[in-house]
Design goal:
It contains 3 helices and no strands. With 52 residues, it is mostly helical. The longest helix has 18 residues, at 5-22. It is elongated, with a radius of gyration of 14 Å. The N and C termini lie far apart (36 Å).
């Protein structure tokens, strides 16, 4: 079955991001109860991943 290599690479990138996000307990447990605060934490985590 043929697959789109570009789409598969993007899917892999997203899956690895969520796997790394699970290592950050604050996001997994969701201590931030307000949606805006939770989104800010996800954005900070994404920035941290991008810088490394």
């Amino acid at each position: 079955m043929p697959h789109d290599v570009g789409l598969y690479a993007k899917r892999n990138l997203v899956e690895r991001f969520f796997c790394r996000m699970k290592d950050m307990r604050r996001l997994t447990v969701r201590y931030e109860k307000h949606a805006e605060n939770f989104l800010n934490m996800v954005q900070l985590f994404a920035i941290r991943c991008w810088c490394n």
